Amino acid sequence: TSRGHGLRPGQRQAGAAPPQAERVLRALAQEPKLSIFAQDDWRKVAVEDVARALGAEGPQRELLAMAVFSGTAQACLQGSYWAPSFGAPGADKVDCGHCARPVSCLYRPSRMPQQGQFKARGGEQAPFLRCEANQSPLDVAARILQTSVRDRHIAVVRFSGARDLRNESSRYWHCTDDDVFLRTSYFQAFERMEGDLNCSVRDAIGEGGLVYTSGVGVLRGKIQDGSPWYREPAHVDVLWVGVPPHARRGDVAVGHEDWYAADEDRAAMVGVLDLAFAWAAARGADTIVLPPVGCDAGGCSHPPLGVASAINEVAQRYRAYLPQVIVASNHTAHCGAEWWGRFDDVLRNRRDKPDPLVLVPPAVLPPYFLVKKDPVALLEK
Q1: Is there a contact between 186 and 179 (Cβ–Cβ < 8 Å)?
Q2: pLDDT digit string (tens) for 243-281?
Q3: How many CB atoms sit inside 10 A of residue 159's CB?
Q4: Three-class DSSP category at 97
Q5: What is the largest CA-CA distance in the chain?
Q6: DSSP assigned state of 332
Q7: What CA–CA distances, in Å, run from 334 to 33, 108, 295, 309?
Q8: How many CA atoms lie within 13 A of 330 on its CB side?
């Protein structure tokens, strides 16, 4: 079972939208501005209508997210959809029946791959490290898979707070934060995740484990573009890690507010990243795409430059096995050009925590004013 906005396994008929989403959609569809969603087949919502409705606020945006999710769920259950959208000129009916339910497994922090599981790729050159602003990790992964002339295996990292209660529920009401549920077949894996892991999701993530879900089908593009359907669904592996929700930041007075104040907090982040990179490499991925892990998103607050430095350290460690490392995000907390500029500089150039600024004490002034003498007084003196 799930809590909040979630799915209940076994409580829907094949081809139907999840009951809870369907009830909310039908109730809110009575609003004149939301009449575009008053239909039974949510796969047929037009790309233009989704893009137009994205400008709404509050409950209307939640409705939009649920409409997109319901279409994705129906496509997975019925095995087909229309690309780029139903009724578009030249639209093709795409068979996605081959997108089987993704399967998850748990790697605990005490279980690391054996050396023999790694496959060197491209020698010992430096890893290809780069940032992509205003793009979600799913967007970057889908673009690489669709434009590459050779077979690619991409791992996409998602994170949440290690003890966040929301880890136990699938969420499909936020257009940006929940895109892995809205645009992919990942929700099918989440429904049966506890059965695959043989333990609760709360314990798996809360105890520092990595939930590795392979074969997740990416069926749709980003909601900002109307969530168009892909003619050729991409497949990625999704790696879910839990991050300590808060880390102590350095002193603002000495310019360390974007760095870790305590070595143990940085070591914890390096451990989380090391587990994800190790198993991505061991499972055959040649590219890993991740967000700025823990940086003011997902209920976590970590210093961005400290995280960038940690990603660089771990990427260098696996440079022979994961030659391409991409950090991408379209989260509002990461939308500033200056934010990305500083993050990218530390990520690519392997910069360490700078020396603290030298604080110069203010000069002590005398308690009286020095009055300048006039020329006559100076002559008499």
Answers
A1: no
A2: 999 999 988 877 788 999 999 999 999 999 999 999 999
A3: 24
A4: coil
A5: 108
A6: G
A7: 31, 30, 8, 17
A8: 15
Q: Which amino acid is at 274?
A: D
Segment 340-360 mean pLDDT: 83
For residue 176, which of 140, 222, 142 has the smallest C-alpha distance?
A: 222
352: number of CA atoms within 13 Å, CB side? 3
Q: How far apart are the C-alpha atoms of 47 and 64, rounded to whole Å?
A: 12
Return d(Cα 179, Cα 171) in angstroms, integer. 9
The closest alpha carbon to 308, from 289, 296, 291, belongs to: 291
Q: Which token pair is 108? A: 């605990």
Residues facing 6 on adjacent strands: none
Q: Among positive and negative, which fits the CA dihedral 75, 81, 83, 85?
A: negative
* HSE-CB of 357 using CA atoms within 13 angstroms: 11
7 band by pLDDT with thresholds 50, 70 and 90: very low
| SS3 of the chain: helix, strand, coil, percent, to 5 | 40, 20, 45
Give the strand order in the sheet containing 103-107.
103-107, 210-220, 229-243, 154-161, 287-290, 324-329, 128-133
Residue entry with tokens 């907390």? 333
Q: What is the pTM of this model?
A: 0.83
